[in-house]
Design goal:
Radius of gyration: 22 Å
Structural class: alpha+beta
Distance between the termini: 33 Å
Strand order of the largest sheet: 1-2-4-3
Strand content: 5-15%
Helix content: 40-55%
Number of strands: 4
Number of domains: 1
Largest sheet: 4 strands, mixed
Number of helices: 8
Order of helices and strands: HHHEHEHEHHHE
Oligomer: single chain
């Protein structure tokens, strides 16, 4: 599982392609910690990300997928830590930042989103994914030559088995609307 600091470092790297140099204050932060063989504090990494996003003269699209995959109660990185980080980033109200967050329906995540006020827009894609999966399964069962010769009762059992369970759950998406 990725820590909040690793997530921040990853965002910094992704927002600075190889041909582009880091802003000077980020380079200094990196050099200082490289010499000390240490890691910057989380707040320093957040500040560095702030400098980088504000300095970019183009739109920044931040996609954070699977927030529900961070455990609610872990020793290192808790889901709450990641949600707080996202809230910090989104709360800075950048003109050029667009955020897409995906997650399965979880009570703590829903409560967190509701606490953001009128900012996020929810998009529930579960029904569409369910319809797409149904169509895919039906098409495979009727066209796949390995499945085509199966007994109808066995085909029905296979379809039922594929259609049950949490594996079919689709992520929810939330968007930070443009200002």
């Amino acid at each position: 599982m990725q820590s909040v600091d690793n997530l921040l470092c990853s965002l910094l790297r992704q927002l600075t392609p190889g041909s582009q140099r880091f802003p000077e204050e980020i380079s200094k932060l990196s050099d200082t910690h490289r010499k000390r063989d240490s890691r910057p504090r989380t707040k320093d990494l957040v500040s560095a990300l702030d400098v980088l996003i504000r300095g970019l003269k183009k739109d920044v699209f931040l996609v954070l997928d699977g927030i529900d995959e961070y455990p609610e109660d872990a020793e290192d990185t808790k889901r709450e830590d990641v949600l707080k980080l996202i809230e910090t980033i989104v709360g800075k109200d950048y003109d050029n930042l667009h955020v897409l967050i995906t997650s399965k329906e979880e009570p703590d995540i829903r409560k967190w989103f509701e606490g953001l006020g009128n900012g996020p827009e929810e998009l529930d894609i579960e029904d569409q994914i369910s319809t797409d999966l149904d169509s895919f399964i039906e098409r495979k069962m009727s066209t796949d030559r390995n499945l085509n010769d199966l007994d109808d009762d066995l085909k029905h059992q296979i379809e039922q088995r594929l259609n049950e369970g949490e594996e079919r759950s689709a992520p929810r998406s939330s968007l930070k609307p443009d200002d």
